[in-house]
Structure formats: structure tokens, C-alpha cells
Amino acid sequence: IPVSEGQVVVGAASVNSGTSLMTFADLSSLLIISQVNQLDAPKLSLGQALILQSPDSEKSTASAKLYFIAPLASVKNNIKGFEVRGLIDRNEAGLKPGVSVSVRLALPKASGVVVVPLTAIFENQGRKVAYVLEEGKPVRREVTVGAIDANDAEIQSGIREGEEVLLVEPPETTKQA
User: Residue 153's Cα: distance from chain center in Å?
Assistant: First the structure.
């Protein structure tokens, strides 16, 4: 309510919109704005589910859908990350604008897959490659990378279980597979 008791208000006329006495907000649909670390940002996709937890109650949760991922990183609290925005479709938890919440993202999980350290994956002419030892010599292999975390990468194709990979790129004298 942007007016005080005793203040003069003006009715709407053809030349003005009058004095606004109050504004009603629809709290059933809210916007959530958060910051995601630069390491986690590539794992996000539009439409991904967000789970929001209110700090005042463990039972007070809401769900949202991710609809915006910033194209440019920003720095907050000396941490580089990306702004993300989600839309709370049904505010069943009774969250209010301006309230802090914790946001959980469902990131991909993989089990029973070939995993290598991130330092074993290299960019070569726009392609992801890894170097595998064959008969004691490094061989470049194009790889398909799946889920990634801070240290490791899932290899969907290009390396088989039990093969040895190099963590440094060998000199240009390697043969291609």
C-alpha cells in the first residue's frame, strides 16, 4: 500500500491513472534467481527440475523448472559462476518474495561406466581426444564424453575398461587411431 493515512488521493481520469492504493501479487507463481558455480553450469539444461528448500522448515519444499542460464559468467563472493533462473509453477510451500532458499539440482549420475580423470581429456581441432597406451606407445583416440564432475569424466565411447590413459598430451609424433 503506497499511500499513508491522511494522504490525498486522486481518482482516475482521462488524463491520469489516479493514485494507486494497493497492489496485489499472485504468489502462486514465483521467480527464483540463483548462482551456479562455473564447474556445474555445463551440466545444466533448460527445463531441468530444481528443488527448493526453505531454511525455516525441512518440510517446506517447492519445485521449479530452470528456464534461463546466463551466457556470461559473473563473480559473486570471489566465485565465478552463472546466474540461473527458475519458475515456481505452484507455490505449495507458501514461499514469499525475498526469502532465501537452498536450491538442489538433479545432476547426472552414472554407474558401471568407464571413467577417466578430466586431465586425460584434450581438445584437438574441436574434438575431444584422449591418449591411450598401445604396446607402450601413445595413440590418440577420439572420445565421446558423458557426465562430468569436478575431477572425472564419463567416457561413452573411445576407451575401454582397463586401458591405460595418459594425463599429459604427448609430442606431435603420435600415430592416429
Answer: 17
CA distance 137 to 122: 17
Measure the CA angle with vertex 35, ends 29 and 39; round to 5°.
Answer: 130
The DSSP symbol for 165 reads B
CA–CA separation, 154 vs 157, rounded Å? 9
Which cell is 124 given? 584437438
Q: Which residues on adjacent β-strands are paired with residue 27?
A: none
Q: How far apart are CA 23 and CA 30, in angstroms?
A: 16
Backbone angles phi, psi at 119, to 5 degrees: -70, -10
Q: DSSP assignment, residue 87? A: E
Q: 90-144 pLDDT, tens per residue?
A: 776 677 888 888 888 766 677 788 999 989 999 888 889 999 999 989 999 999 9
Read off the pTM: 0.51
And the C-alpha cell for 42?
Answer: 555445463
